[in-house]
Amino acid sequence: MQMPNLLEAKKRTKIEPKTINYEINKEYKNLGTNKTYHIKTYGCQMNEHDTENIKAILEQMSFKETDIMENADLILLNTCAIRENAHNKVFGMVGRIKHLKESRPNIIVGMCGCMVQEEVIAEEIISKYKWLDIVFGTHNINELPRLLSNSLQEKKLNLEVYSIEGDIIENMPAKRDSKYKAWVNIMYGCDKFCTYCIVPYTRGKQRSRTKENIINEVKELIKDGYKEVTLLGQNVNAYGKDLDVNYDMSDLLEETAQTGIERVRFITSHPWDFTDKMIEVIAKYPNVMPYIHLPLQSGSNKILKLMGRRYTKEEYITLYNKIKEIIPNCAITTDIIVGFPGETEEDFKDTLDVVNTCKYDSAFTFIFSPREGTPAAKMEDNTPLETKEQRLYELNELINKYARQANEKYQDKVVPVLIEGPSGKNKDLFMGYTDTMKLVNVNTTKDNIGKIINVKITDVKTWSMDAVEDKSE
Length: 473
Ligand code: SAH
Ligand code: SF4
Ligand code: F3S
Fold this sequence. Notes:
Elements: H1 6-10, E1 19-21, E2 36-41, H2 45-60, E3 64-65, E4 74-79, H3 84-103, E5 108-113, H4 119-128, E6 134-136, H5 144-153, E7 158-160, E8 168-170, E9 181-185, E10 187-188, H6 199-203, E11 207-208, H7 211-223, E12 228-232, H8 249-258, E13 263-267, H9 276-284, E14 291-293, H10 301-307, H11 313-326, E15 331-338, H12 345-358, E16 362-367, H13 385-408, E17 414-422, E18 430-434, E19 439-443, E20 452-460, E21 465-469
Parallel strand pairs: 1-8, 2-3, 2-4, 4-5, 5-6, 6-7, 9-12, 12-13, 14-15, 15-16, 19-21
Antiparallel strand pairs: 10-11, 17-18, 17-20, 18-19, 20-21
Helix pairs in contact: 8-9, 11-12, 12-13
The chain binds S-adenosyl-L-homocysteine, iron/sulfur cluster (SF4) and FE3-S4 cluster (F3S).
FE3-S4 cluster is lined by residues 43-44, 46-47, 80-82, 113-114, 198-199, 202-203.
């Protein structure tokens, strides 16, 4: 048993992270023969990519994937801790799985991801969910074969969650969801410690991968036929700051563009570290997509300060204007939290004001959720939930209005789309995204799957567009 610890999770030392080369021990390779697994993934792209690693590890152990949870011999929940409702969702699912386990006691049930990195959750598991088989955290995915082997041998809760600053694990295999688009981690963890956020505790210290490892991964992906990579990190603009090299995110973005991959994206960009050189590189390389997710969080300087975001409303708008000036067709999306402790009507108006200025292409909006152990959870919060819900509603109305307006500019335009596969809502159409990350349902043929084609927009809605293949060239 290895329990996570909040005080340890907060620590940041000068100790260099170790790079560990993942390798599977031969003795684990047949443990999953004739067994199936099913994984449910919650949370952000980081977790989605972790799931891709976990799937590949399980397949090295001879497990086979099944889409039907009820049939699986191994069920894993890869969890998220960002807000309270993530907690409720996961434990709701755990309740359902308990019934399965009652009728099929031999199945193995596990939890992993950010939620189990929380000390309170690990304690809750030990007191109320002792029937779970394995629990492991974000730092020891590479140990899954050993943990599973223990569980197969002995039926007892096997909880191993480390609250360490973290290592870098290289060479983990990945069973990617897409054959055309790939996530590439460029860094792990986060050192920003925004006062509301649990991520620096669940994911540890900021650790950048070396540029060689990143670029090699991109080159391998090109060889495997991938068309698009998304460079992934909680705060990609801080890439390299923890390494002793004179090489930053703009350099990495440029070198990735120079590999010749057809599309490069990156998320997430903290406005604080966004340099002019970044904007230049995005503008210079046609294969760097004109799309930036630029979380605002709040438009009030007072609240931004309480959040520890380290920029002002004015600085944010200046950056926004600079991006739009140099890359006019750049789509910009954002994240906003309403109801942060101490947010007054006046503060909320400041947020609406920034939205009215920036007219975002779209936004994720949230009501503040106190996370145990973070500074904001201890701040005095007198705003009733009803008021927060009203603010969220008002904000969403505005966001939707601008999202639709942004889409309307595309009517009758010809734009490039990477066709990914059949559309979810109409089997005769094919879905994909524009360079600016707009979801498009295209009337085309299946031989275009995996290709970037020009399409003509025929109809726009708030969250998607319809189009036909453009054969005019
Ligand atoms: N690294 C990214 C954010 C990752 S979390 C960044 O800094 O931009 C994704 C979003 O969840 C955040 O941008 C924030 O808007 C929201 N979020 C994080 N913690 C939250 C909390 N405690 N309550 C409500 N929303 C939160
Ligand atoms: Fe959380 Fe802030 Fe780090 Fe983003 S930058 S992950 S919001 S602490
Ligand atoms: Fe959730 Fe962890 Fe991502 S808390 S948002 S899964 S980094």
